[in-house]
Amino acid sequence: MKKTCAALIAAILVPACLYAQNTKKTAASIKEESLSQESVQDAVIFLKNSLDSAATPADKRSILYFTGTMQEQLGLYSDACKSYTKAAGIAAADAAGMPKVSSEQLVINAVRTSLCSGDWETADSYLNSAVRSSKNKTILAYVNLYSVWSSLCKATSVQETRDSVSLLKAYSAMDSMKDVRPAVLLTLWYITSDAEYSAELRAEYPSSPEAAITEGNAQIMSVPFWYFVPRNTAAQTVPATDKKSEIKTQSSSADASATTAESPKAKKQQLGFYKEEENANASIQRLKEKGFDAYSVPEKRKSGTTYYAVVVDENAEGTMGQKLKNAGFECYPVFE
Question: Biased composition, Low complexity: where in the chain (predicted)?
């Protein structure tokens, strides 16, 4: 009788075990399914829900990396940073059929996304890890660049950016920094408003995204780092067609208008973007419980789907973003 019962139990459990094994998926198949979702937001949700079904550690690592890239597209920089960090912590190779990425590159991605959200403390902690001793020249170039970006995050005035500007100028002439030179020149142009750097970009990297930004053919994403870093708007901004061209000084009236020009001010702080209105309402409720007057703004896409952006109006002092972060909420400014 006991043998019969044991046989019956085995007959039940073995198929269940086989079924559990069959539910495991490769990273490539999960990625393919995610790309069939209706929106990037839906793809991210699908990827996160599919993480536990990854067949191997390599598949899980690749899914986390791909999730991070999607979150970064959506401006979910803190979430992207976490995905990259988790992926970097998995000791496994790249999964078959997935983009190749080293652990050092994952750490660099985590640094970049933390800086994009203005979180220089997290960025510094990763910059001071093993990547600082990397033997890869490109990784070291990014470590140097992002270390300067971290310093710029901490700056509260143009005067406090001077050391960073001096370091960037030195980097722009170093052969070891050639892999990130377009980003170095763009940063110098953005902070100093000096047309010399935009001229160099157009002359040496005419097809680069950085050159397109200086020409007004592309825009910098709505990233806290770029909006809050102090800028010297009084510097000359005369366009130049050749990096060897003489930069002409502006008239005193032009200097005066540049000096008084104000940086764009945020109208709202956005905290989430939801497909389901009930999820947006739940987020609003949490914010209201913390004393924030949050509300949702519906946005209808061409597909007919309506999404809901959860926002809080900026205050007169321009400190709402910091107040939200102090209360534990991730947000980014909306300029209208």
Answer: 251-261
Q: How far apart are CA 297 and CA 269, in angstroms?
A: 12
Measured between alpha carbons, how far is 168 from 181 in angstroms, rounded to an integer?
Answer: 9
Phi, psi of 297 (to 5 degrees): -120, 110
CA atoms within a 13 Å half-sphere pointing along the CA-CB vector of 181: 16
310 DSSP assignment:
E
What is the Cα 305 distance to its own chain's centre?
A: 25
Containing H/E element for 332?
strand 332-334
* 107, 142 contact by CB (below 8 A): no
Q: To the nearest whole number, what is the mean pLDDT of the chain?
A: 82
Q: Is the dihedral of CA 266, 271, 274, 280 positive or negative?
A: negative
CA–CA distance, 100 with 123 (Å, rounded to integer): 23
Please give the distance of CA 185 from its chain centroid, rounded to a whole number: 20
- Using one digit for the tens of pLDDT, what is the confidence trace for 162-178? 999 999 999 999 999 99
Would you state the structure tokens that stand for residue 27, as one six-digit string?
């990273």
**Dist. CA 316–CA 223, nearest whole Å:** 21
Q: How many residues does the chain have?
A: 336
pTM comes to 0.65
May I ask the CATH class of domain 268-334? Answer: alpha beta
Q: How far is CA 98 from CA 18, 31, 88, in A?
A: 26, 8, 15
Q: Which helix (H) or strand (E) holds 216?
A: none
Residue 50: both structure tokens together: 């599919």
